[in-house]
Amino acid sequence: MELTTNSNIYEVIVQWKKEDIPRLIGSVRAPNGNLALLQAKEIFTRREKCYRLSVLPRNVMISTTDEDIPLFDYAYSKEYRQPGFFSARNARRIRKGAEA
Amino acid sequence: MSNLSTYIKRWADDEYWNGHLISTLIGYWGPDVETNIALGSMSQDDLGHAKMIYGSYMKPEEINRHIFFSEPDNFVAHPLVLAWEESNWAFIVVKQFLYKEAELLRIHYIKHHLNPQDTKWSFLNQMVEEERLHIKHWREWLSVLSQSLEGIQRMEEAWKTLYPYALDLVLSYTELIPDSMPTTQYEQQLRKVLHHIGLDQQFTFEMTEKKSLSTVHQEIFRQVCMDMQAVYRLDPAANWG
What we know:
Oligomer: heterodimer
Low-confidence stretches of chain B: none
Largest sheet of chain B: none
Number of helices of chain B: 9
Distance between the termini of chain A: 77 Å
Strand content of chain A: 15-25%
Strand content of chain B: under 5%
Number of helices of chain A: 2
Shape of chain A: elongated
Number of strands of chain A: 3
Structural class of chain B: mainly alpha
């Protein structure tokens, strides 16, 4: 029986405490979502208590591809997106530039 | 209460050997590594249950002596628990499904005898929760295997071998509550689950003659038992802490 060839990969998300942000902690392979959740419980919360555990089929996640990597390349060049860029000094300089 | 005390040793041995046999799968065989790790966690639950049950009537050193020094024949685990076919996942799934459903019913019967105020048995609540989760796991696997013709055929074969033994185990609950009908309750529960999965027409509930498990299964059990005891027997006084 080819059990694993029909398996999907599920991302495992854990929220340790009610006030915590859910975090991705790993992935499991399983034939269906219910088994993925049960296996995730036995693998990732073997020794720890958590508030909520979730699994998400990887194939329903919408992600950027390798072709999209250049889109992120210019992030650092846009200094006006950095916090503090619009300090009083910069604001004066920009205003002067606009008046000239 | 005397019925209960004579029953407890068998119950503890069942839980111990079910956990230990499942744990032997880890690391060398299983559908995939995720299932193996999950089985590791669940087998530890069973071993923990066994420890708590043994602890209800034995001291820790007596538990060690029983587990690591008893001859295989001195264990009184039920043949359903000792039934084993290596590398046959469908067999393991059906066996665990039948055993775990029977186990939950057994806890219900055992609870009938107990004083709810007695803290000695407070672990039974934890046990019920853990067994419920194990049952969910094995029901899911039953459902996954039912999606292929080969899976159904293999499960049917395993069912024919194992179901009479499961009934035999459940019938023993009448020792706890004499006028009860545990096999009827058990069958109803199994039918309900199998109907939900769509397997109720596949498996027969007729009380067929038990196929002999004795020779092959006892040999496997003997070997597993000797392997398990080997390290402890080297130096029983050693402190492994």
